[in-house]
Specification:
Layout (H helix, E strand, L loop, with lengths): L2 E9 L2 E7 L4 E5 L8 H9 L15 E8 L6 H6 L8 E8 L4 E5 L2 E3 L1 H11 E4 L3 H4 L3 H12 L4 H22 L1 H21 L5 H13 L1 H16 L5 H15 L5 H29 L4 H20 L7 H19 L1 H43 L6 E13 L2 E10 L7 E2 L6 H15 L7 E5 L7 H14 L4 E5 L3 H5 L3 E10 L11 E9 L1 H13 L5 H14 L14 E3 L1
């Protein structure tokens, strides 16, 4: 899992650049102002950093940066969840126009800056030249220690949220007792009124149907009696006529076969008419005008209508309204139950404290181990006798971060008292301490590409060579990129990239656009690399002495055969 390739177009002073990157340790060098950090800035933009229209090259409409990584099996689920396809590479791309509008893509599918940033955190670990500043922030310090300790704070964070919610519910209930009581009394009175009616779901429709039937009972009875007489009257009834017709056909069907089918149809009609006559008799037996029942229905429906008007609802809504009020009252009863709320708050607090105590135990075990590892790294960086400590002090107030306040303390030399890292006076010491922490903690996490952006500022001599050796060592396991101005660091690299500026003629025919400057990057090896190391040693005038010194440094820092990380492909830069 490493950075394969980066491509830039119209970014700051880069017109067009395509750069293949290698495994192992790669340095970027160049003169002051050549734009050595441009690649780092472009990578950070591709990985979700804030878009800035000022990064668009002057005269261009938009910038375009892309970074291609080896596929990451562990991110397969993340990609699928976000709707991104996984392939034989992981491609992140970002564009920004002159209005500051930004667009992003992951493997060709549109992506937000947040998604780019979230993915980028799994791919790159960048240490800037002012990395020490983050070591004065409590969240950064805590994050470093927790990463070193292998702390998973999800349980503690979840317990904290539950405790806060329970505490807020208790506090809200305590403040609102009078208001809650008044609201409960109002709901109880309203529920009492509706409870007397006891409306049931669908009851209003049934009442309406019954009332309509009783209101028209006499007309319904008259219709049923008339229909029964029309069917069964002995002289002119339909059944008698149908039976006569059937008899006539049956008497002649031996002579006319067609009468057989007609007779069957008449017999079926007679059976259906007889069934209807029986049903009418049954209806008349059970149907009555029943004025008493009609009065009962009138009274109940009147109560429904009265309550519906009072509460500005339709009668059919009363049953649902009663259920709603009953649910609201139950909720208010729960809110007013201070004993239950206090018990819930105490239980959630205990759950958080157990989770926080488990995290504290991990931190206490890891703190001296991290302190020892960073202290040893400091010795190699020219701070003999220096000491690094991780301070764990009980927090004045419990918080989502746990039970303790965490700080990094440093003693720059033997005999001095460890002080907060932000109060270390020397800029060189600050840089070396930050580098010692970076080297120690860079072995953590999943990111296989580590970038050091001039973190070696303020060091030199033998310490600078130690810095180079440390990065060379890191490059055996991970891909390491370092922007540096130190020849001792550059000589330790497996691969060397040179950043340079070149002047171009004016764009306009009349020269109104003025001369332009572009930044380029090219891989160095052999004599070209020796020349660059010599320039870094002695300035622009390269002497025989500086060349000899450069060759000596490259020979001395070369690793034994077989230990240098082999390139995945031939280095290539296309300006």
């Amino acid at each position: 899992m490493a950075l394969r390739r980066i491509a830039l177009r119209d970014f700051v002073i880069v017109r067009s650049l395509e750069l293949d990157l290698q495994d192992g340790f790669t340095v970027l060098t160049g003169e002051t102002g050549a734009g050595k950090s441009i690649l780092i800035d472009a990578l950070q933009l591709a990985l979700g950093n804030r878009a800035d229209a000022g990064a668009v090259r002057e005269g261009a409409e938009r910038l375009d940066v892309a970074a291609e990584f080896d596929p990451v099996p562990g991110l397969q689920g993340w990609l699928e969840q976000g709707g991104f396809e996984a392939g034989d590479a992981l491609l992140l791309r970002r564009t920004v126009d002159t209005q500051g509008r930004s667009r992003g893509w992951i493997n060709g599918a549109p992506a937000t800056a947040t998604q780019l940033k979230e993915l980028g955190e799994q791919l790159l670990d960048i240490h800037g030249q002012h990395a020490w500043q983050s070591l004065t922030r409590a969240d950064s310090v805590r994050g470093l220690l927790d990463a070193y300790a292998g702390v998973d704070g999800a349980d503690m964070e979840g317990a904290w949220q539950q405790w806060r919610q329970a505490a807020q519910a208790l506090e809200s209930a305590q403040r609102a007792q009078d208001t809650l009581q008044r609201e409960r009394e109002r709901l109880q009175w309203q529920i009492g009124e509706l409870a007397k009616l006891a409306p049931q779901e669908g009851e209003w429709e049934e009442l309406s149907t019954q009332h309509t039937r009783l209101s028209h009972a006499q007309g319904l009875i008259d219709a049923a009696q008339g229909a029964s007489a029309a069917l069964e009257d002995e002289d002119g009834g339909a059944l008698a006529a149908l039976n006569r017709a059937l008899a006539l056909l049956q008497d002649q069907q031996h002579l006319e076969p067609e009468f057989q089918g007609l007779a069957d149809e008449l017999a079926s009609s007679i059976a259906q008419a007889s069934d209807a006559a029986h049903s009418l008799h049954a209806y008349l037996r059970r149907t009555d005008t029943d004025p008493q029942q009609l009065a009962v229905l009138d009274e109940r429906m009147g109560l429904w209508m009265s309550l519906a008007r009072r509460y500005k609802r339709t009668p059919a809504d009363l049953a649902a309204l009663l259920a709603q009020w009953q649910a609201e009252l139950a909720q208010l009863d729960a809110q007013a139950d201070l004993d239950a709320l206090q018990a819930a708050e105490q239980q959630s607090q205990q759950r958080w404290r157990r989770a926080a105590q488990a995290v504290s135990a991990q931190r206490k075990r890891a703190a001296p181990q991290l302190a020892d590892a960073v202290s040893r790294a400091m010795q190699g960086l020219g701070m003999q006798g220096g000491r690094f400590e991780v301070s764990l002090q009980p927090a004045a107030q419990p918080g989502r971060a746990g039970l303790e306040d965490i700080a990094f303390l440093v003693a720059g030399h033997a005999g001095s008292t460890p002080r907060p890292i932000g109060k270390v006076a020397s800029g060189g010491e600050l840089s070396r301490i930050a580098l010692a922490i970076a080297v120690t903690t860079s072995r953590l996490g999943n990111a296989q590409t580590l970038i050091f952006d001039e973190v070696d500022s303020g060091v030199g001599g033998a310490v600078a060579e130690t810095v180079g050796r440390l990065m060379q060592q890191l490059g055996r396991d991970r891909q390491v990129l370092a922007v540096t101005h130190l020849p001792q660091v550059a000589a330790c690299a497996d691969h060397h990239l040179q950043v340079a500026k070149r002047a171009l003629p004016a764009e306009g025919v009349d020269g109104s656009a003025g001369p332009r400057t572009e930044s380029t990057v090219r891989p160095l090896d052999g004599e070209a690399r020796t020349q660059e190391i010599a320039r870094m040693l002695g300035g622009e005038r390269i002497s025989a002495t500086s060349l000899a010194h450069a060759r000596e440094m490259l020979t001395a820092t070369a690793e034994p055969a077989g230990t240098q990380a082999p390139p995945r492909r031939k280095a290539k830069a296309t300006p």
